Structure formats: C-alpha cells, structure tokens
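User: My collaborator sent over this chain with a note saying "see what the structure looks like." That's all I know about it. Can you take a look?
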Amino acid sequence: MRNITVILAAICAVAVVFFAVKMWAADGEPLAVGTAAPGFTLASQSGAPVSLAEFKGRWVVLYFYPKDKTPGCTIEAHNFQRDAAKYEAAKAAVLGVSLDTAESHASFCTQEGLHFKLLADPEHTVVDAYHVPVKNAVAFKFASRWTYLIDPQGKIAKVWTKVDVQTHSEEVLAAIAAGK
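Assistant: Without extra context I'll predict from the sequence alone. Here is the result:
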C-alpha cells in the first residue's frame, strides 16, 4: 500500500510540474521586425470597431496584456495613460489588447481613468495573428504580456516579449524617438 501511495504522489508531482511548465512557457515566436503588421478590426471599450488601417502614417503601440483590473495590467495601463501627451507628440497611438470583452474594458477604463483604446479579442484572432502565447489558468485564458511597435508604414519596428510594467512605457517612447 505504501508503494502505491508513493507512486501516486510521484505521478501527481510530475503532473503538477508538467502543467506549470505548459501554462507558463512562452510558446510563441514573435513576428519578425521589418514584416508587415497583420491588419485587424476589433471592438474597443465603447463597442466601436477599431482597425489598424485607421492609424496608417502613425506609430502604433500594440500592447497585449493578460487581464483587466489586475495589478500588473493596471500599472502598465496607468503608465501608458500618464505618457499620453508624449505619445500624441510622437504621432503614436496606444492600443491595448486582451482576451477580455468590450464590457470588461469599459469598466476597467472607467475605474482607472484610461482614455486610449482597449480592444476586445475574446476569440484571440489578433492574439493569434501576432503569435502572442495564450496561457490557460484554472478559470480563464489570458494573453501573454507582449508589445509590438508598428512604424508609420505598417511594419513591425520592435517587439518586446519580456515587459517590466513599471518602465515599459518609457522603453517604448525611447524606441519611437530612436525611430525603432
């Protein structure tokens, strides 16, 4: 009986490790710098459709984030909002994308005073088009925290697959100022 308990405990431990690795492993390869950014149209927090094509001739900060109203996502969004005038001066638009609904985005924007566009991608069509890994948690799925900087010609200028929410907005602004 003791051997069976030990074997079952070992199987459970292996299953937990496998699940954790599968859940947190970055399993996507980002789109290459210099390639055309995939076009898209998604609903914003107001429910109105927003297309990438609307921003032709401007820089676009397309940032993917896990979940509305979570600590890291709130910090990241606040920093983009704090720097809104700098993005406007650089002729850049900030677009946030998560798997949350437009209604969730509307509540998040109202609660946190966010004025840039948050786009709803519950079917993860844009998340998939940009190769952003989707993670499975117990009760929901969420996108990894990645950012694409799209140049005014519609090409991928820079990609961040590891983001520090405290300093990310400054990094993006520096990349825009450097022309990449």
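A starting point for your reply to your collaborator: Helices lie at 2-24, 71-82, 84-89, 102-112, 125-129, 168-177.
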